[in-house]
């Protein structure tokens, strides 16, 4: 069980966890592998490529093996190339790609991450044999100085501000606890500690052996029009480093959820901690592909099959969404299809190599599109069905257990699988997906639309009124004056027809569907409601669920919803709005509760307008902080009338705030709450003005 693999100075070290501790073993004969196949070339050109590769000193050996270049292909001759180091895989693949004519060669198994590649090629499982231990290192990396380190804690213990005391203390605690995993606020914190130690000539050791290494530089990327930032990644020997600023799965699940995905994907914990959902899903798919003797293409190349203009028009649609009935609806029931998209894939055999197959081209299996689907089981259902079954089993155990520690573990595992299942549909339409295919994406949507429309009809036949529906969820209320058919009975009938379980999700005392800001039409994904028999509310899409909303405004909006639930009176809600505005104007709000988080999309000098974000970036630069595109900056609006950096103050430095700016934010949040009742900003302001005038007259 190789829980971690280190690549230091040309040496490969495999770490294993046992009940006795962590053990290591130097790997002497590991040779990474990639494959070369014919593209537009012939057998002679492949033989020439093999002969040329044999002359490289970094090539350990070559051979010819039979592999399938894709799921729709039979096995063919491939040149296997074993090289001396992991770095040589991509270097030689690039050389070969540039050497031949365009498309002459195709390379496979090239762009695997290092530890994942090692586990694949050696057959090692990266799942630890025992429960891993963790240790948290918390602090702000950008504040390090030679004379004083920032407030820093290791495992909850403060280590002091003097470098002469802090560095040995950090090392002492890490050595004493001997954690398998270091959880750090930012991996840059480790880099700053080592940089400080180097300047002071202190031999700092945070790993199970001496050494510290940078695995990847920081970078900025754009995905679907959104700018993101990937921090630099660092490594210490024998311990996994989880960077809280660069981890999805650890933050969205827990260590148990991450370990569960390590077992399913074969991706070691350190790599899984920074991996995206698609990256982990691809790892699971890669293991399935190799088990079927299918190699992994370096560069995805899947031309779309020919479509008529009508097919293009019919296929270019997403899931079905009803226009919500803007109002506050009483006695609302929500029903959801369990993992709709993954279950569509499994129930209808939607797989890249099975949609629009050649053997059933005369059939029209996909509703509205006329695509056929092969009867032979596809690889994608075989990838997803075990995940669906496992999550169902975990959810069943969650319902039965009352052990809090076990419950936390199960919920982490369930959430980890959920994210993989959520992404499997969209990944089929991702242009860089190793095994994706746009026809799969279109097919899944077509089945989803048909299922939701059939569900609507069946519920209406049962005398229920549909008030909203989004892709896999539907909300209904009973029709007045008639007897309704049991929702449980209807759900069973719909489940039997669709082949996918329709579950009763929740009952609400009331649900409010919010209109668009500039229209009376309903916003598709903005609603809130009171859960029946529970002291809780459900919020979707409104300000309190948006990361850019300050904590104070979010809390005010939640209070407004609670006030409406208690009094059912727009006037009473407005009274609470007025109280919040008065608190702001009286200076009775902690500036930290007014912090606004803004994602940066470009470097500060690239902005053309003097926005609040620009002002915050300039203030951060004055402090020596370099906020990169894709990262976020937090600030408090100090004086929104200014255009200079004085317009905002960074969190922790704000001594005051612009009360009128935040009053506007409160009124905007109030409009989301009251607009389902017909009260827009004008009505809210009018009511507040009347109350203010009345109070002044009384005074």
UniProtKB/TrEMBL annotation:
Pfam families: DNA_pol_B. Its EC number is 2.7.7.7. The keyword DNA-binding applies. It catalyses: DNA(n) + a 2'-deoxyribonucleoside 5'-triphosphate = DNA(n+1) + diphosphate. InterPro entries: DNA-dir_DNA_pol_B, DNA-dir_DNA_pol_B_multi_dom, DNA/RNA_pol_sf, DNA_pol_B_thumb, DNA_pol_palm_dom_sf, DNA_pol_type-B. Gene3D superfamilies: DNA polymerase family B, C-terminal domain, Helix hairpin bin, Palm domain of DNA polymerase. Residues 287-673 form the DNA-directed DNA polymerase family B multifunctional domain. The keyword Nucleotidyltransferase applies. Keywords: DNA-binding, DNA-directed DNA polymerase, Nucleotidyltransferase, Transferase. SUPFAM superfamilies: DNA/RNA polymerases (SSF56672). One of its GO terms (molecular function) is DNA-directed DNA polymerase activity. GO terms for biological process: DNA-templated DNA replication. Belongs to the DNA polymerase type-B family. This is DNA-directed DNA polymerase. It comes from Halorussus gelatinilyticus.
